[in-house]
Amino acid sequence: MISKSLFGNRLKEKRKFLGLTQAQAAEKAGIERETWGKYERGVFMPSGDVLLSFLNMGIDVSSLFAAEQGIRPSENSEISKEESELLGYYRQASDNGKFVILSVAKGAEKKAAENTQVLATHKTA
């Protein structure tokens, strides 16, 4: 699991990249400035609702967690409105609901791959 201090450092980098003060970022996230500061200092970790507000601000939340694993996300990587909405549904879902969401996503990817193969076959025929 990622350390709170590493998460906080990454969050601070993202806030500065967006050109926001702690107060401005906290207001956009719907939290107190002091709470934002505690996230950056590694005192607290944000809840799922707060992470969702980070997404809505344009912060790539996965990069906050992925940094410790050596993954270097692009500073310009953003999550679309649809991706944010899907993530919100996933986080609110029960374990069964999460399983269904993942199954549908995997099935859609498999179906898209099959359709691509069919189209390629028809083009060469």
UniProtKB/TrEMBL annotation:
Keywords: DNA-binding. Residues 11-64 form the HTH cro/C1-type domain. It comes from the Bacteria. Pfam families: HTH_19. GO terms for molecular function: DNA binding. InterPro entries: Cro/C1-type_HTH (IPR001387), Lambda_DNA-bd_dom_sf (IPR010982). The keyword DNA-binding applies. The keyword DNA-binding applies. This is DNA-binding protein.
